[in-house]
Amino acid sequence: MTYLNVQGVDNVVVNLAALFPGTSQLITLPHQTEEGRTSHAIRLGGGAVGSRNAVVLLGGVHAREWGSCEILLNFAIDLLRAYQANSGLTYGGMVFSAQQIRTMLDTLHIVVFPLANPDGRHHSQRPGGEYMWRKNRNPDYCVHHEDCSGVDINRNFDFLFDYRTAFDVDSEVMVTDDPCDHETYQGPHAFSEPETRNVQWLLDAHARTRWFVDVHSYGDTIMYSWGNDKNQTTTPTQNFRNAAWDGQRGLANDPTYGEYIAQADLTVGQNLAQAFCAAVLPVRNRAYTPKPSFDLYPTAGASDDYTFSRHFVYPGRQKVYSFTVEFGQQFVAPMAEMQNIIQDVSAGLIGLCLAAPATVPAEPGDKPAGDKPTGPPSGGPFHDPDTPASGTGSPIVTTPVAVDVAAKKK
Predict the structure, then answer these.
(1) pLDDT digit string (tens) for 188-203?
(2) Angstrom distance (rounded) from CA 25 to CA 163
(3) How far apart are CA 405 and CA 410, in angstroms?
(4) Is the pLDDT of residue 382 over 50?
(5) Lower CB count within 10 Å: N or C terminus of the chain?
(6) What's the pTM value of the predicted model, to 2 decimals?
């Protein structure tokens, strides 16, 4: 197995939908990237869009975090093969029964968008590119030289985007409005980038999304809301929509402000994060840590806060419990370790998906949405046909990347 290049990732998504037409559907995202790439997602589970609650899984947001694509693709492959064969899945010491797999795909829609930032991944992987590149490749805001092209996709969502107004000047919030910053430039306005607009479109198209997981590296953690300040459950007026608290957010040890979250919602976030960790541990005795996103550092414009915040800003939308996974201990792990990580996170995601339905009661908005994704194009198989339907991180055989990970330096 090797890391996939951009075309390889897309080939797997397209061909997977063609191979399992009864239990998957190819989704073509509407917004092309700066370099003209069209992105695809895949929806697992039968039935029309909007007929079930949905889990949205996102990967490939930061260019240098290659393994998120491999995790989500193998996760999708394993589920579809096991469902077709009516078999279980085993990841190290963690075993899921055939009935558990069937329950997931018979009752949920699992929407997998493995590569949100293909231009950035291509630049990170190509010969002569920048291995540690993080952003997309939009050159429109660069004022000095090409090296500072791009926007950090995970700072371009519509959540406290005006961070200079929203946060305390001493908060050290991890975002900047400097277009020459190589890491966390937010862009000129929220959703200025096609990559974030694709994620927004995917959420809008799947109006019954109730859970969202953005997969990143690194840190062996799973984080739950909020990311802009420490959580508190007693003062509802302290919230991101209340301008009275502008200039006071983002300080870890300041008793003045904390971001309000209802105790019931905090409990759901904690319990599902624990379910993820509990499923990871038996794989190879590796412990993931559940914690609030703010415990990493304060952020603005991140995908998880945006997704959880939507039901407050737009009351007609569903509440979405949002998580960020930080896998492994480096941005690009050697492939031998990446194969272990794939098993860890796949088990964790299954554990979260199995626990998720019990956390969400029926709500008035449970009705079909209007998504009409395109059907799958034709394409050849992407895997060795002798690979069994159940197993541990099914291998993907497709176009390899033109880089040697072992020769790269962090």
Answers:
(1) 999 999 999 999 999 9
(2) 38
(3) 10
(4) no
(5) C
(6) 0.89
